[in-house]
Amino acid sequence: MANTQRVIARAYSAFNERDIDSALALMSETVSWPKASEGGRVVGKEEIREYWTRQWQEFDPHVEPVEVIDREDGKTEVRVHQLVKSLGGEVLADGEVWHVHMIVDGLIERMDLKENEAGAGAAPSAAFAKH
Hints:
Elements: H1 2-16, H2 20-24, E1 27-34, E2 41-43, H3 45-58, E3 59-70, E4 75-86, E5 91-104, E6 107-113
Parallel strand pairs: 1-6
Antiparallel strand pairs: 1-2, 3-4, 4-5, 5-6
């Protein structure tokens, strides 16, 4: 569990610092990730790189873990404070959401948005609705 929490902390820190390479180093080659600002999913490190690069050209998101819960089913739930701003500094969203990670062999294999269980990332997150 300590290793899981370390992976989670490092991944969020790298994302917030816009250090794509360090974040991707914590993920499996076949990682599946929701496209919160666009809807749908990306699979694999290069698709995540392309998605985040696009996202950061439109928004300034910052996600800070508040609570990390390791579940018996191998999933790790992370309650995060999410602040999303426009590039001009306008606050688009400021609140808490839940991210659910599946970590396999010390690497992030999948991330889901708990706020959207029914559609599992099919539509953009409400945090990006003002764009």
